[in-house]
């Protein structure tokens, strides 16, 4: 038993003094088609409004063989970049007539599989996924079940459509500009080395050194994962190795930057911090930091919009191409 009272179409019909069929036609936008009197339409709509009643989406969607839902799987809900993606995507989905389910994989393959299987069980109409592995066969298998678009990360050796920021080019610009200031030591803190963001961001970092014809010290490249505790750990290892901070630090995500700043704060080192702090991804709170931090800013709105566009196109039976979305640099320190 429940104390809640759920109104049905039959209840609205009774209150309006019409048949259930008439009430259904009015509330499902078919009054004009079936030539229902304007006074009847007004009466039914007034009763529905007074009782905050909406027709059952389940019944309507059952007839269309669609669930009216889409899924988004992200590695971390606390990751600011992924939160911005979900925030931008949800109203776009709603405007397109879909409810968005957002779930987290915690950047773990087994949890990602469970998350996708749960969404499949709910019969979502399409899936947008930030992949946490390069298991191309697994993602291809899911793509046979429903429209699937990869977001923020692509899968190496996969033909699945993706919408990803042009990370390599912007990281190259950021690092090359820093080297041009006479900096000869930039520590690199990255995530899982086999994931596409790690490959792209490291490629931009390495290309900048090559372009400037400077020797890159491989001992200053750390890669672990994108958790903030890994940023803390890599900063600790780097400080121990050098006995000081390097001239500059680049973190491949804002979550790693959080860990780096936590280490500096915990050890009261801001006075001796690197001259140049650089990061992929941005946050307005960085404007309040005592140190200027130059960052690569992703266009979350475009990542969301282009991902949804491709899902809708796939649902319509169209073929889609992958897309590189332009990012830009927030220069808080530029000589």
From TrEMBL:
SUPFAM superfamilies: lambda repressor-like DNA-binding domains, Periplasmic binding protein-like I. Transmembrane segments: none annotated. Residues 7-64 form the HTH lacI-type domain. PROSITE patterns: HTH_LACI_1, HTH_LACI_2. It comes from the Bacteria. InterPro entries: HTH_LacI, Lambda_DNA-bd_dom_sf, Peripla_BP/Lac1_sug-bd_dom, Peripla_BP_I. Keywords: DNA-binding, Repressor, Transcription, Transcription regulation. CDD domains: HTH_LacI. One of its GO terms (molecular function) is transcription cis-regulatory region binding. SMART domains: HTH_LACI. This is LacI family DNA-binding transcriptional regulator. It comes from Deefgea piscis.
């Amino acid at each position: 038993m429940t104390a809640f009272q759920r109104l049905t179409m039959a209840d609205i019909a009774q209150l309006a003094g019409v048949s259930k069929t008439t009430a259904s036609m009015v509330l499902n936008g078919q009054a004009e088609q079936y030539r229902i009197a304007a006074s009847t339409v007004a009466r039914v709509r007034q009763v529905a409004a007074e009782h905050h009643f909406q027709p059952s989406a389940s019944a309507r969607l059952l007839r269309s063989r669609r669930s009216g839902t889409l899924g988004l799987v992200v590695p971390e809900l606390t990751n600011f970049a992924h939160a911005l993606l979900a925030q931008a995507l949800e109203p776009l989905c709603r405007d397109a007539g879909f409810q968005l389910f957002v779930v987290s994989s915690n950047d773990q393959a087994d949890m990602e599989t469970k998350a996708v299987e749960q969404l499949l069980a709910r019969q979502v109409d399409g899936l947008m996924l930030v992949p946490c592995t390069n298991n191309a066969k697994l993602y291809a298998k899911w793509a046979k079940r429903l429209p699937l678009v990869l977001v923020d990360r692509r899968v190496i050796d996969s033909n699945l459509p993706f919408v990803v920021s042009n990370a390599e080019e912007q990281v190259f610009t950021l690092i090359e500009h820093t080297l041009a200031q006479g900096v000869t030591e930039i520590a690199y803190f990255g995530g899982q080395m086999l994931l596409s963001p790690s490959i792209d961001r490291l490629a931009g970092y390495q290309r900048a050194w090559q372009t400037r014809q400077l020797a890159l010290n491989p001992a200053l490249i750390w890669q672990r994962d994108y958790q903030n505790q890994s940023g803390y750990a890599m900063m600790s290892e780097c400080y121990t190795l050098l006995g000081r901070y390097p001239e500059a630090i680049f973190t491949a995500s804002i979550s790693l930057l959080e860990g780096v700043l936590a280490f500096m704060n915990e050890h009261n080192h801001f006075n001796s911090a690197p001259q140049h702090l650089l990061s992929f991804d941005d946050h307005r709170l960085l404007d309040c930091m005592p140190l200027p931090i130059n960052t690569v800013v992703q266009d979350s709105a475009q990542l969301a919009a282009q991902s949804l566009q491709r899902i809708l196109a796939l649902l319509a039976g169209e073929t889609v191409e992958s897309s590189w979305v332009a990012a830009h640099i927030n220069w808080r320190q530029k000589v």
